[in-house]
Amino acid sequence: QVQLVESGGGLVQPGGSLRVSCAASGFTFSNNYMSWARQAPGKGLEWVAAISSGAKFTHYASSVKGRFTISRDNAKNTLYLQMNNLKAEDTALYYCGRGYNPLVSRVDDGSWGQGTQVTVSS
Questions:
Q1: ∠ at Cα 24 (19, 28), nearest 5°?
Q2: pLDDT tens for residues 27-79?
């Protein structure tokens, strides 16, 4: 079955950088669009970024455009999110998922991982 395991979260100061990763298995990673989404405490799910199967196309939410970069390594079945110039409002649980849906509202449909916590605080 689809398995997505996020890692690399942690505590970082405002203005700092962090890279989170997602190891994929159970499906043909190289044939799928992949996405990142996040959920801040007390808020709804927010789609963050997506990347096409061959990495030719990338898409970003306006809240992270210019600061975050999504990438992938199809040889390693791994998805990445490089986050620069982090702000307190970026604090959230970050999920990786299969597919591309900017209107995604839930992560419990079997297409998403369990998440990795990113906390931006001084």
A1: 135
A2: 999 999 999 999 999 999 999 999 999 999 999 999 999 999 999 999 999 99
Q: Is 34 exposed, middle or buried (0-12, 13-18, 19+ CB in 10 A)?
A: buried
What is the residue-wise DSSP string for 29-87? GGGS-EEEEEE-TTS-EEEEEEE-TTSS-EEE-TTTTTTEEEEEETTTTEEEEEE-S--
All residues at 6 or more sequence positions from 109 whose CB lies less than 8 Å from its CB, including other chains: none
Tell me phi and psi for residue 30, to 5 degrees: -65, -10
Closest CA to 74 of 53, 98, 49: 53
